[in-house]
Amino acid sequence: NAGVTQTPKFQVLKTGQSMTLQCAQDMNHNSMYWYRQDPGMGLRLIYYSASEGTTDKGEVPNGYNVSRLNKREFSLRLESAAPSQTSVYFCASTGRGDEQYFGPGTRLTVT
Amino acid sequence: GENVEQHPSTLSVQEGDSAVIKCTYSDSASNYFPWYKQELGKGPQLIIDIRSNVGEKKDQRIAVTLNKTAKHFSLHITETQPEDSAVYFCAAIGQGGGSYIPTFGRGTSLIVHP
Fold this sequence. Notes:
The complex is a heterodimer of chains A (111) and B (114). Chain A is mainly β. Chain A has strands at 4-7, 10-13, 19-25, 31-38, 42-49, 56-57, 64-68, 74-78, 87-94, 100-102, 106-110. Chain B contains no helices and 11 strands. In chain B, the strands form 2 sheets. In chain B, strands 2, 4, 5, 9, 10 and 11 form a 6-stranded mixed beta sheet that branches. A 5-stranded antiparallel beta sheet of chain B has the order 1-3-8-7-6, with no helix packed on it.
């Protein structure tokens, strides 16, 4: 039981490049989330998916898109990366008990 | 929407001392309050939580208290050890509309000196 997995662990992009961050969970959870973490800012919600087939914007959605591919997988896409998107990105999932489980994170640098 | 304030932002203690981190929330509809520990280079991990029908919960050296009237909750760590050094986050969650959307505090960096 791997919990929540994320790929890649590290990524460096140039301004304007695109990339997709992958997330998968093996706990049969309905809800999945993408957060970004910046120094002193805590965790800010980018997008979430309450169930397979639905996605909704969070606090900071601009510049991002998401896809809930199936119940296990939830991807985050940056279409045209900007230096302001340099951050650590965490995927999380929640089951019926409200407990939220986080992945190990993707450290993204945009130059 | 919900707003969560967390204090202090940094807490430095000697090994064996107690540490207390406090959070306040704004939405009286919030009913679930988890605490997360984040070690360097890792994702946050749930360490303890409390629901609005309970005033206090303990798990070995950690405890959480909730005051619904005052809208604040606190994390207490006793007999601190160097391995307790990490960033701690509180969160408040309401379940209005069927969505589970946590609002996080900005985190407290706990440093335990040997």
